[in-house]
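Final report, results section. Input specification for complex C-07:
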Amino acid sequence: MTTPVTTPVTTPVTTPVFLITGATGRLAGAVIDLLGSRGDRLLLVGRNKDRLAELEEEFGTPGRIETLAADVSDPDGASHAVAEAVGRFGRLDGLVHMVGGFRAGPLFLMNSGVCEDLLRANYLSAVTATQAALPHLGEGGRLVYFSTPLAEVPMPALSAYSAAKAALAAWVGSIAHEVKRNGIHANTVVMTMADTPDKRQERPDLNTEHMVTPELVARVVGFLTGPASDGLYGCRVPVLGKFEFRSDLSGPPPGLGGPPPGLGGPPPGVGGPPPGAGGPPPGVGGPPSGVAGPPSGVGGPR
Ligand SMILES: NC(=O)c1ccc[n+]([C@@H]2O[C@H](COP(=O)([O-])OP(=O)(O)OC[C@H]3O[C@@H](n4cnc5c(N)ncnc54)[C@H](OP(=O)(O)O)[C@@H]3O)[C@@H](O)[C@H]2O)c1
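Structure output:
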């Protein structure tokens, strides 16, 4: 009679693992909260060690949600971050690339170094992080990026930011076709300014009702990183809240003071838009504080 050989039973750990780059940023907390509550395993990556320590304090759970200091805009830093995710959790299912930078200012006051910085933060970092992550992703893998409507509709004094995000958008549009052949979903959240505490402090002049909440952005990230978005490849998902582009020529939206085209003037006493409906779009009233240069009247949504 032979003695049965007991082989150790290894339970495959199938819980999805996501690398969140730019985890030290303003929007990441809501995303970490949502993906973490869903049970995903997360490696939170950023350069700011103080902020990483706060994230560790708030969300850190060994084997579930961990942090790492690395600069993913550098190819070695990106490779290190991916190797740590795979080494710590045993797999990688996606990249949520939240790295980004923002500066406003008219061209005549802008140092060309700002353009290079914004290209690195908004576009090149996506290239380096994605190149590092891709070899570990397979069928059902997820890549999520963040852009702005200004990539397609640039406004004054936002040239460097708009161009950097436009580069990102075109790049994602292209690679989405490449990676979908392997079942990998690459999509972009196209969002306007988020309602965050520091934005409220920086721009008290803005109507926060026209901003989007980090929680709304997080819900869309949850969708784009989950099975509900299976089959969506290369999509740009607008998360614009009540934001809209306006022009003095177009006047207020129908029903807010102007007659429908061809219907003559408004009834007596119904002349103008209601308070708050006649001005420039949110964020177009002035530059963010601390931004050198833009003349009054420029600056804008992100
Ligand atoms: N917040 C908004 O209103 C808004 C609107 C439209 C689009 N977006 C986009 O949504 C994403 C997340 O927004 P957010 O407000 O959370 O971003 P954020 O706070 O401005 O920045 C996110 C993180 O990017 C990292 N970063 C910046 N430059 C970098 C570089 N050169 N190399 C490596 N890391 C760099 C920083 O982390 P470390 O310094 O720790 O590395 C920062 O914490 C960004 O892509 C942003 O452009 C945001």
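Strands lie at 17-21, 41-46, 65-69, 94-97, 142-147, 185-191, 236-239. The helical segments are 28-37, 49-59, 75-89, 112-133, 159-180, 197-202, 214-224. This concludes the modelling results for the funded period.
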